Amino acid sequence: MSPVRESISKGTVTPVRDVPSSIPRPEYVGKTRAALWTGGDVHSPETIERIRVSARIAAQALAEVGRHVVPGVTTDELDRIGHEFVLDHGAYPSTLGYPGAAGRPAFPKALCTSVNEVICHGIPDSTVIEEGDIVKVDITAFTGGVHGDNCGSFIAGEGTPEAQELVQVTYDAMMRGIKAAQPGREVNIIGRVIEKYASRFGFESVRSYTGHGVGPAFHTGLVIPHYDAAPHHADVIEPGMVFTVEPMLCMGSEENHEWDDGWTVVTDDHSWVAQFEHTIVITETGPEILTLP
Ligand code: MF3
Ligand code: CO
Ligand code: CO
């Protein structure tokens, strides 16, 4: 096994890729901020069916991009693949043109590629993936007026046993968090379960980025913590709710900062990170994953 790379740095971002005018855009594209969502997080069966369609496209796109995570590919090429896949399925890639924080640029690409110590929101660019890298791909599809959001971690080549363990534990943590999302409980149970499981392996769960309500809005305002936030985030889980569970686990400290690009979030100690994300709907009998291919 060749040694893993030292650290990630900014590459060159290609021009914004086109979207045919026939594909409907989310309301925020071209604006400086997304509209405030006031419609709540419990949706009608008809809305949930539409979210199911977007979620499936997002899941298929994630699988397609994931197949291309190999040493030598650029993160820009991964974006091209995801961008074209989503358009080919008649959907809009929700991150493209998503407004940034005040005075910051909109996100310029169809997906996020977050490599190694990048926690999330990495911008696809000329960065070349190397053997052993952990590449988090986060892709969201918008069609029928609703979004479906998901993320996976892919190791380029084999990866170290440590990287493999981090990825597996993060996936298992997400699934445990999802299973805990039972009607009648508070959403903070999800974070409690995730953080507790991560800590068994010595991993820290990121606090500053969370899961969220999703559907007619990309981010509805509902927060799903991935740590024990009680007594905060006490919203009660109800049938018809749709939200994401998307833990980010770190090999070291979860303390983090953002690059001056206004997006890329990295661990302060440069410890490596894995993330998985599903969009789920709560039924009378428990959670159902929507982001399945
Ligand atoms: N898909 C991410 C999430 O899980 C959000 C990315 S927003 C972007 O919430 F602008 F960074 F792309
Ligand atoms: Co996402
Ligand atoms: Co999300």
TrEMBL record:
<feature type="region of interest" description="Disordered">
    <location>
        <begin position="1"/>
        <end position="24"/>
    </location>
</feature>
<keyword id="KW-0479">Metal-binding</keyword>
<dbReference type="InterPro" id="IPR000994">
    <property type="entry name" value="Pept_M24"/>
</dbReference>
<comment type="function">
    <text>Removes the N-terminal methionine from nascent proteins. The N-terminal methionine is often cleaved when the second residue in the primary sequence is small and uncharged (Met-Ala-, Cys, Gly, Pro, Ser, Thr, or Val). Requires deformylation of the N(alpha)-formylated initiator methionine before it can be hydrolyzed.</text>
</comment>
<dbReference type="InterPro" id="IPR036005">
    <property type="entry name" value="Creatinase/aminopeptidase-like"/>
</dbReference>
<feature type="binding site">
    <location>
        <position position="277"/>
    </location>
    <ligand>
        <name>a divalent metal cation 1</name>
    </ligand>
</feature>
<feature type="binding site">
    <location>
        <position position="219"/>
    </location>
    <ligand>
        <name>substrate</name>
    </ligand>
</feature>
<keyword id="KW-0645">Protease</keyword>
<feature type="binding site">
    <location>
        <position position="121"/>
    </location>
    <ligand>
        <name>substrate</name>
    </ligand>
</feature>
<feature type="domain" description="Peptidase M24">
    <location>
        <begin position="49"/>
        <end position="284"/>
    </location>
</feature>
<feature type="binding site">
    <location>
        <position position="138"/>
    </location>
    <ligand>
        <name>a divalent metal cation 1</name>
    </ligand>
</feature>
<feature type="binding site">
    <location>
        <position position="277"/>
    </location>
    <ligand>
        <name>a divalent metal cation 2</name>
    </ligand>
</feature>
<dbReference type="Pfam" id="PF00557">
    <property type="entry name" value="Peptidase_M24"/>
</dbReference>
<feature type="binding site">
    <location>
        <position position="246"/>
    </location>
    <ligand>
        <name>a divalent metal cation 2</name>
    </ligand>
</feature>
<dbReference type="InterPro" id="IPR002467">
    <property type="entry name" value="Pept_M24A_MAP1"/>
</dbReference>
<dbReference type="GO" id="GO:0070006">
    <property type="term" value="F:metalloaminopeptidase activity"/>
</dbReference>
<keyword id="KW-0031">Aminopeptidase</keyword>
<comment type="subunit">
    <text>Monomer.</text>
</comment>
<feature type="binding site">
    <location>
        <position position="149"/>
    </location>
    <ligand>
        <name>a divalent metal cation 2</name>
    </ligand>
</feature>
<dbReference type="GO" id="GO:0005829">
    <property type="term" value="C:cytosol"/>
</dbReference>
<feature type="binding site">
    <location>
        <position position="149"/>
    </location>
    <ligand>
        <name>a divalent metal cation 1</name>
    </ligand>
</feature>
<feature type="binding site">
    <location>
        <position position="212"/>
    </location>
    <ligand>
        <name>a divalent metal cation 2</name>
    </ligand>
</feature>
<dbReference type="GO" id="GO:0046872">
    <property type="term" value="F:metal ion binding"/>
</dbReference>
<protein>
    <recommendedName>
        <fullName>Methionine aminopeptidase</fullName>
        <ecNumber>3.4.11.18</ecNumber>
    </recommendedName>
</protein>
<keyword id="KW-0378">Hydrolase</keyword>
<dbReference type="GO" id="GO:0006508">
    <property type="term" value="P:proteolysis"/>
</dbReference>
<dbReference type="GO" id="GO:0004239">
    <property type="term" value="F:initiator methionyl aminopeptidase activity"/>
</dbReference>
<comment type="similarity">
    <text>Belongs to the peptidase M24A family. Methionine aminopeptidase type 1 subfamily.</text>
</comment>
<dbReference type="InterPro" id="IPR001714">
    <property type="entry name" value="Pept_M24_MAP"/>
</dbReference>
